[in-house]
Design goal:
Largest sheet: 8 strands, antiparallel
Radius of gyration: 46 Å
Number of helices: 4
Structural class: alpha+beta
Oligomer: single chain
CATH topology of the largest domain: Glucose Permease (Domain IIA)
CATH superfamily of the largest domain: Glucose Permease (Domain IIA)
Strand content: 25-35%
Number of domains: 2
Distance between the termini: 116 Å
CATH class of the largest domain: Mainly Beta
CATH architecture of the largest domain: Distorted Sandwich
Order of helices and strands: EEHHHEEEEEEEEEEEEEH
Helix content: 25-40%
């Protein structure tokens, strides 16, 4: 097949009294020029569309990031609310003072949903963050530390420890019992008796201050500890004492040694717990199995 050949053309332009003008037109050059003339706007429009698509994608990613930031701030705010309540701080006044942009109540709302601009969401996050930081550092953290410290002190003062290490038989329960000496009549027993060998160390069941360390009446050598928070404990019939009045003891510190002094029928430890001045059953605090 013969190949199409594009031949050049010559155009002669004449005017009366003037030299003629000769133009030589090459078809290939003309076609290329027309293509460039027509193609330039298309390229420019394509480039503009591409830039718009890229910008839209960036805006979409920015909006997603801004939404995630606000969501995280809301989660942090909710966690701070939990800590604030844990610390015993008031609810609404503190929030209005430190977080003016945060909603305290949730009134009825409605309307047509419109996408929030990323810039507006990031600006709200920027304004909300200092309030959360201020609430956490100035109010919640100090109050929470005080609360946890007080709870730790209260836990240390709770008489949940064992007064004698190991497992020893209970020789007399708390409450009403027959007279252990002659069997005549009944008496109230304000504690639990643990039978054991003479000289076995007796230890404090919680932190506190020794308010009695002496030999008195039916309890013989005995120690009484004031733990605060309305709790006291008593350890009686000991063969000897290892503390004195006014000593501050920790849970597990040795108070004395098992014996049979005072009104006692044999070596044992009498252990009592008092709450608000009233004797309570130590079995519940020691988590001993209930007797049948």
């Amino acid at each position: 097949m013969a190949r199409l050949q594009l031949k050049p053309y010559t155009v002669l332009i004449t005017a009366t009294g003037k030299a003629p003008i000769t133009l030589t037109l090459k078809p290939m050059s003309l076609v290329v020029g027309l293509m460039l003339l027509v193609g330039s706007p298309i390229v420019w429009i394509s480039l503009l569309l591409y830039q718009n698509v890229q910008l839209a994608q960036r805006n979409h990613h920015l909006a997603e990031t801004a939404s995630e930031v606000l969501t995280e701030l809301n989660v942090i705010g909710a966690e701070i609310e939990v800590l604030k309540n844990r610390a015993g701080l008031p609810d609404k006044v503190l929030n209005r003072r430190l977080i003016p942009d945060r909603e305290i109540e949730m009134p009825p709302k409605g309307g047509v949903a419109q996408a929030a601009p990323a810039e507006a969401m990031l600006d709200q996050a920027r304004r909300q963050l200092p309030g959360l930081e201020a609430l956490l550092s100035r109010a919640v953290k100090p109050a929470l530390e005080q609360t946890l410290e007080a709870e730790a002190e209260q836990a240390a003062a709770f008489p949940s420890g064992k007064p004698i290490n190991g497992t020893w038989p209970v020789s007399s329960e708390f409450g009403l019992r027959p007279n252990p000496f002659n069997g005549r009549g009944y008496e109230m027993h304000e504690g639990i008796d643990f039978a054991g060998p003479v000289g076995k160390p007796i230890v404090a069941t919680a932190e506190g201050v020794v308010v009695i360390a002496d030999y008195r009446g039916g309890y013989g050598n005995h120690v009484k500890i004031d733990h605060g928070y309305s709790y006291e404990t008593l350890y009686a019939h000991m063969s000897g004492l290892a503390v004195k009045l006014g000593d501050r003891v920790q849970r597990g510190d040795v108070l004395g040694y098992l014996g049979s002094t005072g009104r006692s029928s044999g070596p044992h430890l009498h252990y009592s717990i008092y709450r608000n001045g009233q004797a309570v059953n130590p079995r519940h605090y020691l988590k001993l199995e209930e007797t049948k």
